[in-house]
């Protein structure tokens, strides 16, 4: 147990450019403030959610590679939201489609050796979308808002890339990752990911939770762990970090009901999270929790009742984290079994 908690307050060294954190804050904050200014905060929140595509901006590679990556991820965000809305008409269809979507998406991510955040934000957008009321007539409007958020982030990202090129700043050397031609382990990992994403959403429906997306989001976050110890550590960190984060969320919500201040909180929290997430996940979770709640609930009347909101979200996050730990254990067990059999063969 001491091994799990000894690094809670330790900041790991990171070579991540601090300007990426500032860039994320700008990309998320721009549509949010525009939505607040025109009294369309709910629309601004949808756009700022898709503005997170900036986090997929590669740290290395050519200009074409970086822009292509942002554009492909942008279309992926739009497709994730559209598919989620389309299959939200029925809980059974939602669970099945979510599982299949997560399986296929994770298989693609594994095939191309994508770097973090990998499949996480695609899954997050799909789960949030599929938890919203089914309404095909509103779908074009929402897809338009998603498109605007990704377009704005891509434009800001391009400006940042051109700025770096004009300053002739050196980039990290690009290390090519070898791909194992036998993809059996990847296939099993994708299947397990799809299964647990379906289970997590199904659990939310079975418990009759109004916004069941918190369970799959927490489950997916924990299952991103690279090793068995990392998975259990991340699960515990997420649960205890969530406790502190919910306390921070309650404090911030209790101190103000200003929509503008909530928008500024989101921008500041996004910056802090991006500065911490690669250095200490436990500390980052403390700020991820209020950030995620504000981004998904700021336009909901429940935001005015902090105690009720926090009680609901804590239960869902804990359930998702525990399910993610179980899924991560099974995932790691299958990897060990596969590589052991491969060596014996």
TrEMBL record:
Residues 200-326 form the Integral membrane bound transporter domain. This is FUSC family protein. Keywords: Membrane, Transmembrane, Transmembrane helix. The chain crosses the membrane at residues 20-38, 44-63, 93-112, 119-136, 142-163, 184-207, 213-232, 244-268, 280-298, 310-331. It is a multi-pass membrane protein. It comes from Croceimicrobium hydrocarbonivorans. GO terms for cellular component: membrane. It holds the Pfam family FUSC_2. It is found in: Membrane. The keyword Glycoprotein does not apply.
